[in-house]
Design a protein that fits this description.
Blueprint (H helix, E strand, L loop, with lengths): L2 H9 L4 E6 L4 E6 L2 E9 L2 E7 L2 H10 L3 E3 L8 E5 L6 H18 L2 H7 L2
Antiparallel strand pairs: 1-2, 2-3, 3-4, 4-6, 5-6
Amino acid sequence: MTHSEILQYCMNKAGASQDIHSGLDATQIKVADVLFAMVHEADGRPVVSLKTSPALAELLRDEHEDVFPSAQLNKAHWSTVHLDGELPDSQIYFLVDASYQQVIDTLPDSARQQLGS
């Protein structure tokens, strides 16, 4: 998977917007101004950082060497995934969906209604 493919998938989410975090050289994808994905590079490889529950983060890290704690975000809640690793694209898409939904669930009712959620 490439940066452009994951960005396109993220931007197809209702209410998604992106901006550049120049200090991290990363593209941040947000919904209602809340971060749900960050696309960047780690050790010269394309990665995406996604929000997860601490339990899921631990499970993924234990089972997949291409999933590791995010260096720039809260390590308990954010995992970074190599896009060019062995994790299937379908599982990466699932993790994007889960991260997006986790953020949607924290939004006020009025913001969710505007998004159609």
